[in-house]
Amino acid sequence: MSDRDTRHQQAMQKLKAHVDEKVARATEQRGLLLVFTGNGKGKTTAAWGTVTRALGYGYRVGVVQFIKGLWECGERDRLQDDPNLEVVIMATGFTWETQNREADTRACREVWAEAQRLLADPGVYLVVLDELTYMLKFGYLDIGMVKRAIENRPREQTVIITGRNAHRELVALADTVTEMQEVRHAFNGGIQARRGIDY
Ligand code: ATP
Ligand code: MG
After folding, report:
1. For atom 22 of ligand 1, which residue has the closest CA?
2. DSSP states along 134-189
3. For labelling, which of 21, 86, 113, 178 has a CA lying 20 to 30 Å from the CA of 15?
4. Ligand 2 mean position to 178 CA, how many Å?
5. Which is the catalytic residue, given 96, 102, 184, 188?
6. Atom of ligand 1 nearest to the CA of 182
7. Residue-level pLDDT at 50
């Protein structure tokens, strides 16, 4: 074996020992809290990817869309016939255009009641709270109330929260936090959001 091969083999053995040790230490089995945040693209895409993954094993999944509920959404269209998927959308359609605080708060609370139902249902394996972070930011929902519902959820249930500027208490509570970092976004170069790619 060449020196280079020997060095590679030693490095790989070290890596394997390191990974094996980590695998041996990961003994706990329970549902997770994941937060996908940051300004870069990919948060909602990653959440729907996980939804597809869970549905693939026949698990029940609930998706709650706190913003853009009435907007087009390719994943929702594709997956909505799956009897294991329930999608709750904010019917009155909170968007950046509506600026009626009272109406938005009411719409948000209605959707939150549905989210609470899903978060209390041990038959639901995965709950996605898409764009929930803005509801906290605008004060439509109280962080204490959201934390309580998440903390008291069934042990086997996983929750994914997406949105920019995640509340620090949510970040502190989460098992996995991923920050999508924007290196560049086409929109800022004047390119329109693209059907089937951006929504
Ligand atoms: P996606 O739904 O594509 O995974 P996202 O959930 O990470 O994006 P949001 O902040 O929810 O991002 O934005 C939703 C829409 O805005 C999507 O059409 C997305 O492509 C677009 N978008 C995402 N990031 C940026 C950005 N940094 N600048 C401009 N537009 C963005
Ligand atoms: Mg999103």
Report:
1. 41
2. HHHHTTSS-HHHHHHHHHTS-TT-EEEEE-SS--HHHHHH-SEEEEPPPS--GGGG
3. 178
4. 13
5. 96
6. 27
7. 98
